[in-house]
Amino acid sequence: MRILRVAFIIALATALLRPVGFAQALMSSANYGIPSDTMSGGGGDTSTSANYGLKDTIGQVVAGSSAGATTAAQQGYRVTESAGLNVAFVNGSGDVIPAPTVVFSSVTAGQSASATLGIPSSKIRVTNSRAIAPWSLTLAATSGPGTKWTDGINNMGFDEPSGGKLTVDPSVATVAPIGLTCTSAGLTLGSSATFNQGVIDSITLLTAGGSAQTNCVWNLTGVGLSQFVPAGQAAASYGLSMTLTVS
């Protein structure tokens, strides 16, 4: 099973999401891996020795999947040999955002602040270039259950039923396939849920079933977030690191 994670920070002012890249190898052994190769001076389809085997492509300098704001490409005639599952935040041009953030509205203690996870300028992008269709996208606190919102001095819970609690509603989100041949068939948005320490430590945002397409890219936007701020909570700007996982 391939598991990819992207962490991010959410900020609340009472009243910030960070990608982790992934690597995939088309050719590998216990001692090496080659993502793609070219043989400018010639070469056969398969080169071998006593210690290695290499599939080479004359003149093929770019291979694999890529996507922009409205298009997706599976590049190279050997692209189907690639296997990858990836999640990242991208901007309106389809470029990966190095350190994405989600900012809540300012709120008074005793009320709930709201935010949206996945917006046009910071979309959640899932890429599945595997031959296997099923996968699941989940959200959890980077440091695990019991983690606190903090400003460095003051703290506030995000998974305390009787205190600060964060509700996530992916049912109101939108899934947009990228490319002419990709669709959202077989994808299911998760249900609204509230983090509850030891009970609900991870919330599913999106699931791909067995009928979902492979070698496709999707953008997820519009996931609702709501953080209840307990009465008496000190006024400050709080941050909490969260992680998206696709597996």
Structure description:
The chain is built from no helices and 23 strands. With 247 residues, it is an all-beta fold. The strands form 7 sheets. Strands 1, 2, 10, 13, 18, 20 and 23 form a 7-stranded mixed beta sheet that branches. Strands 9-12-21-17 form a 4-stranded antiparallel beta sheet, with no helix packed on it. The N and C termini lie close together (7 Å). 31% of the residues are buried.
Amount of helix: under 10%
Query: How many structural domains?
Result: 2
Q: How many beta-strand elements? A: 23
Number of helices: 0
The mean pLDDT is: 78
Main structural class? mainly beta
The helix/strand order is EEEEEEEEEEEEEEEEEEEEEEE
β-strand amount: 35-45%
Radius of gyration: 21 Å
Care to give the gist of this entry?
By secondary structure, the chain is mainly β.
